[in-house]
Amino acid sequence: MPKEEINGVEIYYELSGKGKDNIAFLNGIAMQTALWEAQEKHFQDNYQVLLHDFRGQGQSSLKPNNFTFKQHADDFNKLLEELDIDKIHVVGVSYGAEVAMQFALQYPKKVSSLVLGTAVSEIKPLLKAKIESWIMAAETYNGELFFKVMAPYVYSNSFYEENGEWLENRAVQFGRIVNKEWLEAFISLSKNFLTLDITNKLSNIKVPTLVISGEEDILKPPYYGKIIKNEIPNSKFKIIDNAAHGLFAEKPMEFNQLVGEFIKNNV
User: Fold this and answer.
1) 15-43 in b/e burial notation, b at 16+ Cβ within 10 A?
2) Please, what are the domains in the chain?
3) What is the pLDDT of residues 68-105, one digit of tens each?
4) pTM for the structure as a whole
């Protein structure tokens, strides 16, 4: 799969689909492109679908570790230039949604529409404490332990009840596949996340915007989504019932339907 030399690092990306319009899905903090499989399959008949790993993630360069939201937005913009994409629908979840907001602020003319899943624009003390616990778990350099600390904040109670064996196996697998370099990059990404404070800038986003929260999201509860909705002019807000922070994976049909209908009806 291809990589591009972008702003001094290698950025891994995937481009698929055959539509005339473009749509990008931006990763959450511990994600990689493979986790967008349900979205890629759903949208690639009608859109050209772009996936990429941010610097510090997946198959992109994990170093240097001076990650910033501005740098992620600049990397994304440069990737679009390399791929000759002038305008794109941008869909992000969690960290990726926060990058998406930064991108819309820096490069508004390149955004056809914006979908922000489980996003925040500021960090209250409880969320800060949760992310700090993730950082401390990552600093043990034990991937299985790290997954078991992180996962309860990502998935709902019903998902745990229905997928307990998968979660146990995933924790073991995670311990085998992540290494110290990956965990160090995750720590740096997390520390960058803790700098986020853009609520007072959101009124400058003028593109059609949909904000999606999970009803059972205990990491970034729906009130964060309502803050964003109230600040971005004419934005829309939806809650997916019985879904937690990983709503795009827990409820892919509902998530895909909301995204598809929003783009179709508002652009």
Assistant:
1) bebeeebbbbbbbbbbbbbebbeebbebb
2) 3-122+197-266 (3.40.50.1820)
3) 999 999 999 999 999 999 999 999 999 999 999 999 99
4) 0.97
